[in-house]
Design brief:
Layout lengths: L4 E3 L7 H11 L7 H9 L6 E7 L2 E10 L5 E9 L8 H13 L7 E7 L3 H10 L3 E8 L5 E8 H5 L1
Parallel strand pairs: 4-5
Antiparallel strand pairs: 1-2, 2-3, 3-4, 5-7, 6-7
Bound molecules: coenzyme A.
Length: 158
């Protein structure tokens, strides 16, 4: 594993770089700048962000915010750049994300969604990270099944 640093806020000059990292990883469901910026504009939604930097480059990041039900944090995305995958950076980002999220008194659960095409990789990946209750929760706009997993504060803290 290379020497890395973890940051918990994006310098505004780097926002597009990280959006590009996301869009390159999810070419079928890219985010536009307006949606991306919405994560950082509304502190009431308690955005949680962590990124890993190696040699002054972004190797990965995790991002989430609360939804309508303010006891639930939605983990919106986790990305590790292809060059750095398989080095536990994803696990480190998830750990930081959960530690911070569950330090908020109002949050009792973190949920995340993934697409059917990715399910064969991500269902076991998140199970390995102690996410539970895998289920299908409706469909995306292209008809693809929407998978959901969750982790509870009481289980994370135990
Ligand atoms: C998913 C992703 C973030 C994983 O990041 P990563 O840094 O390569 O993953 P890690 O190296 O942290 O893997 C963590 C652990 O999970 C294990 N693991 C990895 N893939 C696994 C799988 N399919 N099933 C079970 N365990 C798996 C690893 O062996 C490792 O185990 P260890 O903790 O015992 O060493 C990365 O592959 C990625 O960015 N993919 C594209 C974007 C994506 O699909 N993101 C998820 C959106 S919800």
């Amino acid at each position: 594993m290379d020497k890395f640093t973890i940051i918990n806020a994006i310098p505004s000059k780097d926002r597009l770089t990280i959006l590009n990292l996301y869009n390159n990883s999810f070419p079928l469901s890219t985010w536009n700048k307006k949606y991306w910026n919405s994560f950082f504009k509304n502190s009431l939604r308690q955005p949680v962000f962590f990124a890993i930097k190696i040699n002054n480059q972004y190797a990965g990041f995790v991002l989430g915010r609360v939804g309508k039900d303010t006891s639930i944090m939605l983990l919106s995305t986790l990305v590790v750049s292809p060059t750095y995958r398989g080095n536990r950076y994803g696990s480190i980002l998830i750990q930081k994300f959960l530690e911070t999220t569950f330090s908020f008194p109002n949050i009792h659960k973190v949920i995340l969604h993934f697409r059917d095409f990715n399910a064969w990789r991500l269902e076991p990946y998140y199970a390995h990270l102690d996410f539970i209750n895998h289920k299908i929760e409706g469909t995306y706009s292209n008809g693809e099944k929407k998978h959901c997993v969750e982790i509870h504060k009481k289980d994370f803290l135990n």
